[in-house]
Amino acid sequence: MAISNTQHASPNLQHPTSNIYLIGMMGVGKSTIGKKMASILGYIFIDLDKEIEKQEGKSISTIFENEGEEYFRKLESQALQSIEKKNIIIATGGGTPCYNNNMEHIKMVGTSIYLKANSGLIFQRIHYHIDKRPLLKGMNEEQLRTYIEHKIIEREPYYSQADYVFGIPASSAESIVKSIHLELL
Question: What is the value of pTM for the model shown?
Fold first, then answer.
């Protein structure tokens, strides 16, 4: 299942207090896989978007609508960099690695895993829920497909810096978690 294991100096996962950062496009399963991995490894799970919602007392959609994307990206970076605990699996937002040197921070403080899926699978997973995703509201299917394809290309230079890259097929989260666990440990 692993597409590649990039050659960085020993992955930080060898340290018992390392954090694991799941990156990739929306809809690839970062939260689902992160929760299952945390359970297996005995780590704490954090969904970065949920942390922001908790800190701000409002939904991501409301933050986008009232304050805009730039404000949200600042909050996102602050939330990411404020994580001080160890033994945590963090599911980042799809754009998190692409702003404010966040990918550089992720690589400095933990092990990064890029969950990579093709545009068709991402579309299949998110097209029924576009109203829950602020950047997608009001898009028709054709616009959504184009948006996904464009974002994959735009974000790939950031995502590809991850310590590990795992292809996400349409299989179950459990089988993906098992593959990641076997590769990392």
Answer: 0.87
